[in-house]
Write a structure and sequence with these properties.
The chain is mainly beta and about 190 residues long. The protein is built from one helix and twelve strands. It starts with a helix and ends in a 19-residue tail after the last strand.
Length: about 190
């Protein structure tokens, strides 16, 4: 059972795949899980962690009210983290070769190991260093390293909804544009 739980939790750790530059050394660290309740259904390959769930592996931390991990017949796993403080599941991990962290939150965070795809639903927010993006839906494809952010659920654009918001900081060493002198008045 411990082996099953450890393998299952690795899928949740893959939530880190959101940005492709997560700390690689974390993969070789032990997984530590705290929850108020754990149920394991070996027959159906479902593990459910409930109540103040805290999963850590190296610099990775996932906080949620509930985490459900399932495994299909081919051995691929899916993880779903829901709820938490303010109704949001959260993750945080140090970026590879950097002192910056990747952080994200949403009402529901899903990871599909077969497709290497992470999805954040409702009140989604991902911050990497000083860059950040917000929307109702954020998807990260680990195979193509592409993001999709929309203002509506399930990758839909809603014309009456809030707009997607992004803040992208200039990279270090990028020169600031020269300020022009005010025009002289006659």
């Amino acid at each position: 059972m411990i082996r099953t739980i450890s393998r299952a939790t690795l899928i949740i750790l893959a939530l880190l795949a959101l940005p492709a530059h997560a700390e690689r050394a974390d993969r070789s660290k032990p997984v530590n899980i705290e929850a108020d309740r754990l149920s394991v259904d070996d027959k159906n390959k479902v593990q459910t962690f409930e109540g103040r769930v805290k999963m850590t592996q190296g610099t990775l931390q996932i906080l949620a009210d509930k985490v459900v991990v399932t495994q299909d017949t081919d051995g691929f796993q899916k993880g779903v983290a829901t709820g938490g403080e303010g109704g949001l599941a959260r993750f945080r991990q140090k970026r590879e070769a950097s002192n910056e962290y990747i952080e994200g939150e949403a009402e529901r965070i899903e990871y599909d190991g077969r497709r290497d795809k992470a999805q954040l639903f409702q009140r989604a927010h991902v911050k990497s260093g000083r860059d950040e993006v917000r929307g109702q839906y954020i998807e990260y494809d680990g195979l193509t390293e592409n993001y999709l952010v929309t203002n509506g659920p399930d990758a839909k654009v809603v014309s009456t909804g809030e707009r997607v918001r992004a803040v992208i900081q200039p990279k270090a060493g990028t020169p600031a544009p020269a300020a022009s002198a005010p025009a002289a008045r006659p």
